[in-house]
Amino acid sequence: MIFRGSQVAVVVAFVVVLVVVGTIGYVWIEGWSWADSFYMTIITITAVGYHEVHPLGETGRIFTVFMLVGGLTALGAWFALITASLVRMDLRKTYERRSTMKKAGRMKDHVIICGGGNMGQQIMRELGGAGTPCVVIERDRDATESLREINSDAAIVTEDATRDRVLRQAGIGRAMGLVACLSSDTDNLFVCLSARDLSDRLVIVTRAEGKSTTAKMYRAGADHVVSPNRTGAVWVASVLVRPSVASFMDASEKGRHLSRHIDQATVGEGSQVVGVTLGEARVLHETGLLVIAIRKPGQPYEEATFNPDASIRLEAGDDLIVLGDDEQVERLRAYVG
């Protein structure tokens, strides 16, 4: 609320009483009609400076003086109420901004989402479900209110994501990843350039449309470029060509009891599985997960080994790609981490 209800009620009640008293006063003192008395009361308490409706007697002039004092008091109270409300509103915005920045300043290994549109909102839901902290930068203040309802733990920053200052305030130096999903490819490209310049270790994912734009995103520093149109087309083709697989994946996404998804776990330094073969690691027995691919450190994802043989020897930094639920993936990370 910008205005406080009790204060507004007091000021409105004072003005109403003043108008009623003034109208009745002029009718009783000067003997004017109700319309003339009401008009005289209004122009008096508002101090507009119009001529008197009719010549006033001595008693009428004294009464008018009191009406002027009352009108100026009402106007002063109203302007004071407006000023105080504006100050409170500005202070509230300042407090919310500082609180958000303070919350973002405490985050580490979080994800920065640039853009709170449909894609940004879905990413917020997924990160919230995975327990990953995130900072969302959205310039539209009206949109930020709905974003807080999606993920209450997220820090929502009402700023322009293309500014370096805003990215620093969002903790880009401590973040593990950044998603650029603004409505404009130009803005996403600029965010990629700025983010890569501010952090070398940051994993940058951006959306783009068209092959030429995708190539520019990679040159600007993006690690992964997602094209919603292309992804949607691949999914539509999968539904037509491989309907059973597509239906299973669709059910896995919607059903909590089938909360399967593709995830990864990285073999850590000094892990108990370093130096042993995939078969000797007994990942399926220990976690219930089947390793569907292995990516060696620095190896492009398209060159990862799919359906790896049990004789493959595991090394520190290997990414194990698996399909399973969150609990199984956590067991795997604890086992190989």
Short description:
Helices cover 55% and strands 12% of the residues. The chain has 13 helices and ten strands.
SS-based class? alpha/beta
Please outline the major beta sheet.
6 strands, parallel
Task: Categorize the overall geometry.
Answer: rod-shaped
Distance between the termini: 50 Å
Share of β-strand residues: 5-15%
**Overall pLDDT metric:** 79
Radius of gyration: 33 Å
Provide the succession of SSEs. HHHEHEHEHEHEHEHHEHHEEEH
Overview features:
337 residues, alpha/beta, 6-stranded parallel β-sheet, 4-stranded antiparallel β-sheet, 10 strands, 12% strand, rod-shaped
Could you walk me through the main structural features you see in this protein, from its secondary elements to its overall organization?
With 337 residues, the chain is an alpha/beta fold. 55% of the residues lie in helices and 12% in strands. The strands form two sheets. A six-stranded parallel sheet has the order 3-2-1-4-5-6, sandwiched between helices. A four-stranded antiparallel sheet has the order 7-10-8-9. Helix 5 (141-150) links the parallel strand 2 and strand 3 (155-157). The longest helix has 48 residues, at 58-105. Mean pLDDT is 79; it is low at 254-259.
